[in-house]
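Bench notes, bay 3.
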Amino acid sequence: MTTAESLRRKLDACPAGLPGWKQFEDIGLEILDFLLCPPLTRPIIQPRTYSGIDRRDAVFPNRNHGAQNHWGHLLTELNARMILVEFKNYDKEDIGKDEVNQTRNYLNAPMGSLALMVVNKIPDESAHIKRNTIFAQDGKVILFITAEHLKEMLYMKERGEDPADLIVDALERFYLQHE
């Protein structure tokens, strides 16, 4: 069994909601690390602000200054110096505007303007509207990356393609739907 297949199976075995929140976060980090490092630097897990008030799930440093790859492009376009990743593994409740706003608040100028919300289900309409408002007000981009996206990225890596293509595609789709 390939590493990618093993990771897909682990993701499929993850229960939704509170029973699987830590498992979803752990397997999500394992997948993103496998897919994106390098060219991104290995993630800083659970970093806290100095005061300890804010705790982000993970941050992938992007040191691709001047690189001719997707991450160099995102660093230039969105000042995506640190790629914020927040995990949401919900069961019955919706992933809504409050979760998007929480992610927004974790993005600051030194980090840049790109966050990935890795979700086990599609966020509701209020989440989509909120991220559009955030982009219009702050220029911050929050992309929803589903478990299905993660699996597709694993297939891409197996085919020798760049999994970051999916992230750039998601960014372009976000720009197209933004109003």
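Next record in the batch:
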Amino acid sequence: MAAAAPQLQKVLASVLAEAGWLDAPREQALARLAAIEDPDERLVAIRTLLAEETRLGMMVGVAVGWELAHELEG
């Protein structure tokens, strides 16, 4: 699994990008974060964005895994 993880991450990133789920919202968030003058506030906002993107990726990964499990059962 450890050897496959980087490949799975690339597949997930590709799927999210292809679907356009992160494009506009992510660019808007990055522009907003770049405009934050206070370095501490900016760092908190960046960490929050990364955590939200991670959660989204995990939810998609779980949904795909769930569907794959159902497919493999049959």
